[in-house]
Design goal:
Blueprint: E1 2-6, H1 12-15, E2 17-20, E3 30-39, H2 42-49, E4 60-61, E5 65-73, E6 85-89, E7 98-102, E8 107-108, H3 115-118, H4 123-135, E9 142-145, H5 151-160, E10 166-171, H6 175-181, E11 188-190, H7 196-204, E12 209-214, H8 219-227, E13 233-236, H9 249-255, E14 258-261, H10 264-268, H11 273-289, E15 296-301, H12 305-312, E16 320-324
Parallel strand pairs: 9-10, 9-12, 10-11, 12-13, 13-14, 15-16
Antiparallel strand pairs: 1-2, 1-4, 3-5, 3-7, 3-16, 5-6, 6-8
Helix pairs in contact: 4-5
């Protein structure tokens, strides 16, 4: 079995390489998945660098999500069939020709969902849906998010509408506005213009903004906080800038604002199985109907892993970089 692994932490393009290993065997309650495609997520890259919330034991196989077909069933597994196409997430080693997954975590897929969509169906869109539940935002309320051309933000914007939630989407450059509009995402504001906060107020009609989703950090965090209404929530989801959040004490005090962090991996530890099934069912339904569109920028073969890693971190991408794992 071919796999993309690393024996030291560092820059993914330098430390990731193709190695051979015996095929893994599924244990009790597990399935073996013959992988087809897997995305390169930001958290995958950070994990390879050794900077994520947990460090894998080395050597490790990269990747955490993908699409494939069930190749073998472990002891006690029922309700799944060999050859069935499934989406898998939460893997420790998705960048391989075969990977072992918990049977309870695989998601059977309808034919209407193509492989490129299926490969990235769970992690980022599930984060988006869970974020909406996490904040408790209600139909008719306003939410504002920065880094709106990121994978989670794009999914959130598409999933919020059917729930009756209104979203302002902030991007850093004017060119990104048309990128979101092509997906049917509206209320997009570019922050490279001097009066962008006034544009936000015009979009909301002056209505209070209940929730801000911050994926940037630094001054961008304070900008979101300044736009929230009284009692608003600012949720830290990421820190693309690499800078600490800079917030106004006055905004925190006089708005009685709440600031909290969001990490899906931690929430999954306590999420009720029924809630998880409900959220994933919503994702599958919306993707199958075409209401949820997940973009792919390029697909690289395993042999071009270094190029794929560099492409995943390049600016200006219009979707995910995927690895093709099926020979």
């Amino acid at each position: 079995m071919r796999r993309l692994s690393y024996s030291q932490f560092g820059e993914p393009a330098k430390v990731i390489g193709m190695t051979e290993a015996p095929s893994p065997q599924p244990g009790k309650g597990e399935v073996l998945v013959a992988m087809i495609l897997s995305p390169i997520h930001n958290h995958d890259v950070i994990t390879v660098r050794g900077n994520y919330g947990h460090k894998p034991a080395l050597p490790a196989i990269g990747g955490s999500e993908g699409v494939g077909t069930i190749a073998a069933l472990g002891e006690g597994v029922s309700g799944l069939e060999i050859g069935q196409r499934v989406a898998v997430s939460g893997l420790k080693g998705a960048w391989a020709e075969e990977a072992v997954a918990r049977a309870a975590s695989v998601v059977p897929l309808p034919a209407e969902i193509d492989d490129e969509t299926a490969a990235q169906l769970i992690a980022m869109p599930l984060s988006a849906l869970t974020l909406l539940d996490f904040t408790g935002i209600q139909p008719g309320q306003w939410l504002i998010q920065n880094a709106a051309n990121g994978a989670v933000a794009k999914a959130l914007a598409q999933l919020a509408g059917p729930r009756g939630i209104q979203v302002v989407n902030l991007v850093r450059r004017a060119e990104a506005v048309s990128e979101l509009e092509a997906l049917g995402i509206g209320s997009v504001v570019a922050t490279d213009t001097g009066d962008w906060k006034a544009a936000v107020t015009r979009l909301t009609g002056g209505a209070p903004i209940a929730v801000g989703i911050d994926g940037v950090g630094g001054d961008a965090s304070g900008d979101l906080l300044s736009l929230l209404g009284e009692g608003g929530q600012l949720v830290s989801f990421g820190a693309m800038s690499g800078e600490a959040m800079r917030l106004s004490g006055s905004d925190l005090i006089f708005k009685q604002a709440i600031v909290k962090g969001f990490w899906l991996s931690k929430l999954m530890e306590t999420m009720a199985p029924a809630d998880l099934r409900r959220l994933i069912g919503e994702l599958v339904s919306r993707a199958a109907s075409g209401a949820l569109k997940l973009e792919t920028d390029r697909v690289f073969p395993m042999e071009a892993a270094a190029d794929a890693m560099r492409a995943a971190e390049a600016s200006g991408r219009r979707g995910k970089i995927l690895l093709r794992l099926k020979a």
